[in-house]
Amino acid sequence: MDYGKLMRRAWEITWRYKFLWVFGIAIAFCRAGGGSGSNFNFSNRNFTGQNNQFGQFMNPANPFSQALERFFSSGLLWLFIGFLIVLVILFFFIGMAVVAYARGSIIRSVNLLENGEAVNFRLAWEEGKKSFRRLLGMEILINIPGLLVGLAIMVAVILLIWNLIKSSGMAYGADQSAIFRSLLTIAPAFVIIICSLACVAFLIQILVAILEVFGSRAIAIEDLPVIAALARGWKLFLANLAPAIILALILFGISLGIGIVIGLPVALLLGGFVVVVVGLTHLAGPAWLVFLPVIVLLILAVAILTSFVRGVYLVFTETLWTLAYRDFTHTEEGSLLNP
Distance (Å, rounded) from C-alpha 274 to C-alpha 34? Predict the structure, then answer.
């Protein structure tokens, strides 16, 4: 496989047929992902002293603390968890529907272009309809395990918070050492559960990525039903294991480079933004809320910009995998003709 030629052709299609960017940006919005980490460094002084704000917050005499305790002790907690689960599932299915339609439009359009046919936005949109139901069915089938793991993590986090609140400040009269006793009791089991779920989720994600790449193209290009497409895609992946892994590693490197190029300016911008907000809060007090519309617009602008860049990159990757899939199938046909 000529990886350089494949990538040049993928970029040529991506840059020339810019109407495909609409579908890539749609996928980027629905598959927006990211991680954030926080380091909480509490000195001993933070947990001691009569003016400890956290102690005041957790004090049972605090009306808000009492309301929080009633909430966690009542059936409202489970109603809240149920509402969150329904909301996650709703957005999960809406996102999968958009991704299935957009991915089908890109794959079928690229396939038509490689067959020498002319393609425009209207035709690409119509092409998306032809494989939408089967691609959506595939998305649902292969993503349900990941959804269940994600919901399990969400419920575990909520239950951890509930147990901490019940067994720490509210149970011990806001004694701060009770929080550490609760953490020492609950945290080990919680960490084991979360790490186990995270490992399962990682393995599921790898399998889902393979099936999505190859199964979706078996559906969109070869017009196979869902189960047959997944079997076909898996077989083709195993038959072309080395080039598929090399291509994935190349894309990972490109993605990492794009992430650094975009992420560093965004991080600096957000860092400066946080400094400005903190300064305004300190100097102007509640009056800083006047700047809230500007803050919202800035966050929205950053989200749109990153989604745009990621959308163009997703068109490139979808195009590249489509070209690779065609190359894999042509190689397979050649080996069948010349045993």
Answer: 19
> How far is residue 304's CA from residue 298's CA, in Å, rounded to a whole number?
10
Q: Which residue has the tokens 């911008």?
A: 269
- Residues 168-227 have pLDDT tens digits of 544 444 445 555 555 566 666 667 776 776 787 778 778 888 888 999 999 999 999 999
- Calpha distance 134→100 (Å, rounded): 9
Q: Supply the pTM of this predicted model.
A: 0.71
Closest CA to 78 of 164, 197, 162: 162
Q: Do 326 and 114 contact (CB within 8 A), yes or no?
A: yes
H or E element: which one contains 252?
helix 241-284
Q: How far apart are CA 137 and CA 224, in angstroms?
A: 12
Burial label for 215, CB within 10 Å (0-12, 13-18, 19+), is: buried
Distance CA 310, CA 205 (A): 19
Q: What's CA 288's distance to the chain center, in Å?
A: 32
Q: What is the DSSP letter of 120?
A: -
Q: How many residues does the chain have?
A: 339
User: What amino acid is encoded at 1 in this protein?
Assistant: M
Q: DSSP string spanning 7-68?
A: HHHHHHHHHH-TTHHHHHHHHHHHT------------GGGG-STT-HHHHHH-TTSHHHHHH
DSSP state, residue 174: S
Q: Please name the amino acid found at residue 141.
A: L
Tens-place pLDDT, residues 29-64: 887 543 333 333 333 333 334 444 444 444 444 555
In whole angstroms, what is the distance from residue 286 CA to residue 108 CA? Answer: 54
The amino acid sitting at 339 is P
Pair of tokens at residue 285: 């007090």
Identify the sign of the CA torsion 216, 220, 226, 230.
negative
CA atoms within 13 A of residue 181's CA, in its CB half-sphere: 11
The answer to whether 170 touches 57, Cβ cutoff 8 Å, is no
